[in-house]
Specification:
The complex is a heterodimer of chains A (368) and B (134). Chain A is built from 13 helices and 17 strands. Chain A is of the alpha/beta class and 368 residues long. The relative contact order of chain A is 0.12. Chain B has one domain: 3-Layer(aba) Sandwich (Rossmann fold). Helices cover 44% and strands 13% of the residues of chain B. Chain B has five helices and five strands, in the order H-H-E-H-E-E-H-E-H-E. Classes of the chains: A alpha/beta (368), B alpha/beta (134).
C-alpha cells in the first residue's frame, strides 16, 4: 500500500487546482504499485482519501496531532511506500520521516517549488524550518522536483514536469481562418502571467496599421484582472479582448467550447517578475499542447525541445509582444495541415502523468 | 534536563495550542461571527464540551442565540466557578443525552473527547469549535 501524503489544508489544494495534479500522480503510481490513498487536512480534521471518498477522519489541531494520526494510519493500512508533498520542516515532520526510516518504508519527497523562499515563512514556522530542514536528508534519499536541479540537500533528484490526463483535454476542432487569429489564455490572472505585454503588443500592432483580426479570450479571474481591463480601455482594444471570467471544473464543456473557438494560446509572459525565474513547466503548456493549440510563452519550458516548432518563445522581459512575429509564427505552423495532431501526439508521448512519474514509480518499486 | 527535541515537542506543541485558543477567544468577541455560525449550522439545543476558559467564554458568547442545555466536563465542574452556568460530568451527560449537537472546545483533547463521544453521539452531531469560521 502506498500513501500520498500532503500535510496542507484541502481547501488550499482545491482552490489552486492542485487536487487534479495529485489525482494524476496517484493514478500513475497505482498502475504499477497497487492501491494508493492520500492524506490531507480539512482543518481541524486529518483525512485519508480514496479519490473523493473519505476513508478516515480524525481530529488533528496541530501538526503534532496530524503526524500522530498519520503514523496510526500507516500502521493500520500496512503502508510500505510513501510519496510526500513537502510543505515545511518541523520537529514532527522529521518524526514522521524517522518513523518511515525505522520501519523500512520507502519514500520520495516532492519539493514543488525549489529553491523556495524561506523568508515567506513567519515566526515559529520559519524558525522550525531553519532548524529542521537540515535533517531531512538523513531520512529521505530521493527528491522529486519541478526544477532542473540534479541534487537537493545532497540527495539525487527526479526532475518532474506537470503532467496531464489526455481525456480531460480533447483536441480543438477549430481550423485556421484567413487573416484572423483567436488567442486563448486560461489562468488565475496573476502578475507572473504578464498579459500586459500581449495587450500592449496588440495596441502597437493596430497603431502600426496591422490588418489581421486578432482576438484574445481571457478566461479566469484574479488579482490582475482590473489592471488588464484598464489597459484594454486605455489601448481602445475592447473589440479585440473578451473577459470570460472564471470557468469552474464542473463546467468543462463550456471551457472545451472556448478552446474550440481558438487558434492559438498564450502562456505566462511574466516569469521574469517571479524572482527572475527563467524556466518552468506550468500545467497550461501541456494542456494547450494536448488540445493542438500552438502557443506563445516567455519562459524556457522544460517539457519541449528548444525551438520546438509549435511553441513561440518570446524574451523573458517586460517588452510588448511583437504581434508581427506571432502572426508569422502562426502562418508557418498552419502550413502543416496536421499540426494539431502532431502536437497531440507529442503530448501523449511526453506529457502524461504516466510518462512523467515513470522514474519515481521505478524507484519505489525497487527493493532496498 | 530534557534534550532539544523533547523541549520543542512540549513547547512547540503548546505554543500552537495556545495561539489557536487565543485566536478563537478573540473571535468569540464578535457577535456577528457567532450569529452567522449559529444560522449557518442551524444550531438549536446543544451541549458545550469542556469547562475550561474556552468552554466558559463560548457559553457566554453563544447563549444569546441558542439554548445551551449544559456544559459537560469530565470533572463535573468549571475551571472558574460560575453559578449561572450549568455543568455536568460525562456519566450524567451520557444518561441525559438525546441527539443534540455537542460543541467540543478543548483543543488539546479533541481526539480523546471525539472517541469518547463517538460511543453514543452521532458523528454529524459532534462539532469542534475550531470548525467555526471554516
Amino acid at each position: 500500500m502506498l500513501f500520498y501524503i500532503t500535510i496542507v489544508d484541502f481547501g488550499a489544494l482545491f482552490a489552486q487546482g492542485v487536487h487534479r495534479k495529485i489525482q494524476g500522480q496517484i493514478k500513475s503510481m497505482e498502475r504499477e504499485l497497487g492501491k494508493a490513498y492520500y492524506t490531507g487536512w480539512s482543518y481541524p480534521k486529518a483525512l485519508l482519501m480514496d479519490g473523493r471518498e473519505v476513508l478516515e477522519a480524525e481530529p488533528a489541531v496541530t501538526i503534532k496531532d496530524f503526524v500522530g494520526v498519520l503514523v496510526e494510519w500507516i500502521q493500520k493500512y500496512e503502508v510500505t511506500q510513501t510519496y510526500i508533498r513537502y510543505s515545511s520542516a518541523s520537529k514532527w515532520f522529521i518524526d514522521l520521516l524517522k518513523y518511515q526510516n525505522m520501519h523500512g518504508i520507502k519514500s520520495v519527497l516532492e519539493i514543488t517549488t525549489y529553491p523556495y523562499d524561506i523568508e515567506v515563512a513567519e515566526g515559529i514556522v520559519k524558525l522550525e524550518n531553519l532548524i529542521f530542514v537540515k535533517e531531512i536528508n538523513r531520512y529521505i534519499h530521493r527528491i522529486a522536483t519541478y526544477s532542473s536541479h540534479q541534487e537537493i540537500w545532497e540527495q539525487p533528484c527526479f526532475n518532474l514536469m506537470n503532467g496531464i490526463n489526455m481525456n480531460d483535454h480533447p483536441i480543438s476542432i477549430k481550423r485556421a481562418e484567413d487573416i484572423k487569429i483567436v488567442f486563448i489564455a486560461v489562468s488565475t490572472l496573476q502578475y507572473w502571467h504578464g498579459y500586459e505585454r500581449f495587450l500592449e503588443g496588440m495596441y502597437l500592432y493596430y497603431k502600426g496599421g496591422g490588418e489581421y483580426d486578432l482576438k484574445l479570450k481571457l478566461i479566469g479571474d484574479g488579482p490582475e484582472k482590473k489592471y488588464y481591463e484598464d489597459l484594454v480601455e486605455k489601448y481602445h482594444i475592447q473589440l479585440q479582448v473578451e473577459f470570460l471570467g472564471r470557468i469552474e471544473i464542473s463546467e468543462k464543456e463550456r471551457l472545451d467550447q472556448q478552446y474550440d473557438l481558438s487558434d492559438m494560446a498564450v502562456g505566462s509572459l511574466g516569469f521574469y517578475k517571479a524572482m527572475g525565474a527563467e524556466e518552468g513547466s506550468p500545467i497550461k503548456g501541456s494542456e494547450y499542447c494536448a488540445r493542438g493549440l500552438p502557443f506563445i510563452c516567455g519562459y524556457r519550458d522544460l517539457r519541449f525541445p528548444p525551438d520546438w516548432e509549435f511553441m513561440l518563445n518570446v524574451p523573458n522581459n517586460s517588452e510588448p509582444i511583437d504581434m508581427n512575429r506571432v502572426i508569422d509564427f502562426y502562418e508557418k505552423v498552419t502550413l502543416k495541415e496536421n499540426y494539431k495532431e502532431l502536437m497531440r501526439k507529442y503530448a501523449a508521448e511526453h506529457l502524461t502523468w504516466d510518462k512523467i512519474m515513470e522514474p519515481v514509480v521505478e524507484y519505489l518499486n525497487l527493493d532496498f | 534536563m530534557k534534550n532539544r527535541d523533547e523541549l520543542i515537542d512540549i513547547y512547540g506543541y503548546e505554543a500552537e495550542i495556545f495561539k489557536k485558543s487565543y485566536n478563537m477567544m478573540g473571535r468569540l468577541l464578535d457577535k456577528n461571527f457567532i450569529k452567522n455560525e449559529v444560522e449557518k449550522r442551524k444550531l438549536s439545543d446543544m451541549y458545550i464540551y469542556g469547562g475550561g476558559f474556552l468552554g466558559i467564554q463560548f457559553y457566554r458568547a453563544i447563549t444569546p442565540f441558542v439554548n445551551v442545555l449544559s456544559v459537560v466536563d469530565k470533572s463535573g465542574k468549571l475551571l472558574v466557578e460560575m453559578d449561572d452556568i450549568p455543568v455536568i460530568n460525562i456519566s450524567d451527560f451520557r444518561n441525559q443525552y438525546e441527539d443534540e449537537t455537542v460543541i467540543v472546545t478543548p483543543l488539546k483533547f479533541y481526539r480523546e473527547i471525539y472517541h469518547e463521544l463517538k460511543e453514543f453521539v452521532l458523528n454529524n452531531k459532534i462539532i469542534f469549535l475550531e470548525e467555526f469560521g471554516g
